[in-house]
Amino acid sequence: MSLVLVTGASGFLGWHIARALVERGHEVRALCRPGSQLRELPVQAALGDLRDPDSLARAVQGCQMVFHVAADYRLWSKHPQELYQSNVEGTRNLLLAARNAGVERTVYTSTVGCIGMPAGENGDEQTPVSISDMTGHYKRSKWLAEQVALEQASTGQFVVVVNPTAPIADHDWKPTPTGKIIVDFLAGRLPAFVDTGLNLVDARDVAEGHLLAAAKGRSGERYILGCENLTLQAILGRLALIADKPAPTTKVPYAIAYATGVVTTAWANLTGLEPIAPLEGVKMARKKMFVTHAKAIRELGFKPGDVDVALTRAVNWFRSNGYC
pLDDT tens, 173-186? Predict the structure, then answer.
């Protein structure tokens, strides 16, 4: 089988993609920074950094495929230019290295945050959207990185873009913002909720979607990898049944959530400590991130499974690993 490079394999989604590749017999090389842990995976470690082109040239050497999953995912940073250096310029560096090394296929992991969200409808890959629709530095940096990927595809390099929604499952090490909702619920730190919504999807299905995109995707196309649109209240209700804990019943008005975001983010900018409620996250929560993955079903054969099964695995994994 082929040699495949995965960036971000020490993180949640990258770990699931690397595991899926290993299970299919591929030899996997994982780009990682010194100190990163490649846990429970029989993969090669390639030390490097997205901001270091020489390290990327070494990492892609001999690879037939690249899955670029790594990103600087922070909804607050005292130095936001770091997000652009890693997410935008890092993507440019990696795609150039892949092109120079003759990599046959590259899959770039974008985000559902780069999908347009029409009022009262589900967003899809064709919904008009621009950088002015991007809230905060993380989403702006990912949108710009996606443009880099699409530009490279337009010049003849084989690059497919996938837009995962909110993955949930086991092995959410950090955890991700969605995983943190689950952890905070289990720990009793969610006494209330805001009126927002997410599209949940099993991380294992997202990993399968990446492999399908590499095999069947069209270069220069975007594919939403999602499953079920749910309000936050509905998600907490399902967690309550799975974890046998009461769900919060108090809805926080957006104005109060916004004020909390302003205050805690201002304090973070002074102290350098991460805010409890990043203002970017509060602003993002104003829109329900509801989308359709019909294109991935139609063109890739993407078949996501039951979200409740993934929620159950996440709850059990967080509990058994001491997160709550």
Answer: 999 989 999 999 99
Asked if 66 and 48 touch (Cβ cutoff 8 Å), the reply is: no
Q: Which residues contact 221 (CB under 8 A, 6 or more apart)?
A: 125, 160, 161, 299
Q: Is residue 164 part of a domain?
A: yes
Contact 84, 93 (CB under 8 A): no
Q: Is the separation of the CB atoms in 98 and 58 below 8 Å?
A: no
Number of domains in the chain: 1
Confirm if 207 and 13 have CB atoms less than 8 A apart: yes
127 within some domain? yes
* Residue 173 domain-assigned (yes or no): no
Q: Please check whether residue 196 is in contact with residue 174, taking contact to mean a CB–CB distance below 8 angstroms.
A: no
pLDDT band at residue 51 using 50, 70 and 90 as cut-offs: very high
Interval 141-180: pLDDT, tens: 999 999 999 999 999 999 999 999 999 999 999 999 899 9
Question: ∠ CA 280-319-40 to the nearest 5 degrees?
Answer: 90
The CATH number assigned to the domain holding 17 equals 3.40.50.720
* Residue 258 falls inside a structural domain: no
pTM: 0.94
Backbone angles phi, psi at 103, to 5 degrees: -60, 135
> Is 176 in contact with 196 (CB distance < 8 Å)?
no
